[in-house]
């Protein structure tokens, strides 16, 4: 659905994006993670056609953003970090305006009413945007992104500044939208990405440093794979028996946690799943199992590791490309003369 190849963006001598490449399949909710200034917004602005790249290629639905910009833009609904809302309009007036601006062919009244019901703003349909809460303004911003029923939604920090209840509501809405749209969710709130996204792409200092499934990325990139076992058993015998299980690299006691109850750290081989043989061992010995938890890196630990060094966990092929001494050749004659800040490129009122 979306394919980004060797995307590079320079602002004068500053390299904001360095040969970023990824592919997103149709119907996927992808979290786009990175610290402030990592290049997230720059990447999304290039994908939406708002910024030009120094080099590289972006295609959406098989169409190039350079060759067919208008066609590609019609396939994308974009919610920037600051929603492009006109405060002196009512919700109805604003959505009608965006409908005309996007030259949508769907029946106006029916289409906009369906969107309002979906994002739950039909109860504020005739109110001034200036009088809405932050949460409702975010919903109106998402509504404008949905006009024209684009197959791709790009949401930049959609829950920033919201209270916990509003955050939960927006997350639920994004999950609902993911049933019929490909969604790219940019955020640095890790719990949000973990709750909503099926896949995570991490960018740091303009380079892609990790890409994988949300549930397995931390496990796949962890240098160690550990379980923490708590059981009622003789300490030394428990450690000895667990150490002899197939797939176990090392086991050592973490001490007595309750009378007669010991905790053991178990390091396993990368592809080994020792939970079943471990349970069988304890059952045969009549040692009650009181707790068993995975001690791999959390998503937060992983994020800190990925963003604390420049090229941590970088795929080998991209590592090699980034060491290429040849300089990028700009596609646009004036691109390298752009002196605006890469961390916060200027946003217009209407991204589409």
From TrEMBL:
<protein>
    <submittedName>
        <fullName>ABC transporter ATP-binding protein</fullName>
    </submittedName>
</protein>
<comment type="similarity">
    <text>Belongs to the ABC transporter superfamily.</text>
</comment>
<keyword id="KW-0813">Transport</keyword>
<keyword id="KW-0067">ATP-binding</keyword>
<dbReference type="InterPro" id="IPR003593">
    <property type="entry name" value="AAA+_ATPase"/>
</dbReference>
<feature type="compositionally biased region" description="Acidic residues">
    <location>
        <begin position="325"/>
        <end position="337"/>
    </location>
</feature>
<feature type="domain" description="ABC transporter">
    <location>
        <begin position="2"/>
        <end position="230"/>
    </location>
</feature>
<keyword id="KW-0547">Nucleotide-binding</keyword>
<dbReference type="GO" id="GO:0005524">
    <property type="term" value="F:ATP binding"/>
</dbReference>
<dbReference type="InterPro" id="IPR003439">
    <property type="entry name" value="ABC_transporter-like_ATP-bd"/>
</dbReference>
<feature type="region of interest" description="Disordered">
    <location>
        <begin position="314"/>
        <end position="352"/>
    </location>
</feature>
<dbReference type="Pfam" id="PF00005">
    <property type="entry name" value="ABC_tran"/>
</dbReference>
<dbReference type="InterPro" id="IPR027417">
    <property type="entry name" value="P-loop_NTPase"/>
</dbReference>
<dbReference type="GO" id="GO:0016887">
    <property type="term" value="F:ATP hydrolysis activity"/>
</dbReference>
